[in-house]
C-alpha cells in the first residue's frame, strides 16, 4: 500500500513537471465577425486608422467595393505574403463576396499576428442587402 502511494506521488510530480505550468497568455487580439450595421458604424465612427480590406478578385473589386477599401486578391499565388506586408497593428475591416474567402482569411491573419480584425459576416452581399453604399 505504501509503495502504491509513492508511485502515485511520483506520477503526480512528473505530470505537473511535464505540463509546463500555466499556458502563456495569448496577446490581446480582437478577431470577430460583425454584421453590416456594425461594419458601417466602424467606417463612420471607428478608429481613424481603420483599413478596409477586400479579398475578392480585382474584377469583383472594380464592380463595387466598400468605401476606401484596398484589394488583396484571395486567389493570388502570393496572397499570404501580401497580407504579411500589411501593418499588423492597425485595425482592419475584412470582407469578400459572401463571407467564404474572408472566413478563410481570418486564421491566416491570426497566424500572421494581426491584432484587430473585424470580418463582415455575409460579405458585400450583406452590405448591399442592408442598402449601404458602394464605391466604384
Describe this protein's structure.
By secondary structure, the protein is of the alpha/beta class. It has a single domain, classed as Rhodanese-like domain (Oxidized Rhodanese, domain 1), CATH 3.40.250.10. Helices cover 43% and strands 15% of the residues. The protein contains six helices and five strands. Strands 1-5-4-2-3 form a five-stranded parallel beta sheet, sandwiched between helices. Strand 4, helix 5 and strand 5 form a beta-alpha-beta unit. The protein is globular, with a radius of gyration of 22 Å. The N terminus is likely disordered.
Order of helices and strands: HEHEHEHEHEH
Structural class: alpha/beta
| Main CATH class | Alpha Beta
Shape descriptor: globular
Unreliable stretches? 3-26
What is the assigned CATH homologous superfamily? Rhodanese-like domain
Question: Descriptors for this entry?
Answer:
single chain, 136 residues, alpha/beta, Oxidized Rhodanese, domain 1, 5-stranded parallel sheet, 6 helices, disordered N terminus
Brief synopsis:
This protein is an alpha/beta fold and 136 residues long. Helices cover 43% and strands 15% of the residues.
Question: What layout of secondary structure does this protein have?
Answer:
Layout: H1 2-18, E1 30-34, H2 36-45, E2 51-54, H3 58-63, E3 70-71, H4 79-84, E4 92-95, H5 100-112, E5 116-120, H6 123-129
Parallel strand pairs: 1-5, 2-3, 2-4, 4-5
Amino acid at each position: 500500500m505504501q509503495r502504491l502511494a509513492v508511485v502515485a506521488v511520483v506520477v503526480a510530480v512528473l505530470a505537473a513537471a511535464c505540463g509546463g505550468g500555466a499556458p502563456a497568455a495569448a496577446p490581446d487580439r480582437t478577431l470577430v465577425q460583425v454584421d453590416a450595421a456594425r461594419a458601417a458604424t466602424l467606417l463612420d465612427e471607428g478608429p481613424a486608422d481603420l483599413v478596409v480590406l477586400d479579398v475578392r478578385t480585382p474584377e469583383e473589386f472594380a464592380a463595387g467595393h466598400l468605401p476606401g477599401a484596398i484589394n488583396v486578391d484571395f486567389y493570388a499565388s502570393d496572397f499570404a505574403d501580401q497580407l504579411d506586408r500589411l501593418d499588423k497593428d492597425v485595425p482592419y475591416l475584412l470582407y469578400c463576396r459572401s463571407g467564404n474567402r474572408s472566413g478563410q482569411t481570418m486564421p491566416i491573419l491570426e497566424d500572421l499576428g494581426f491584432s484587430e480584425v473585424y470580418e463582415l459576416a455575409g460579405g458585400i452581399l450583406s452590405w448591399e442587402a442592408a442598402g449601404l453604399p458602394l464605391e466604384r
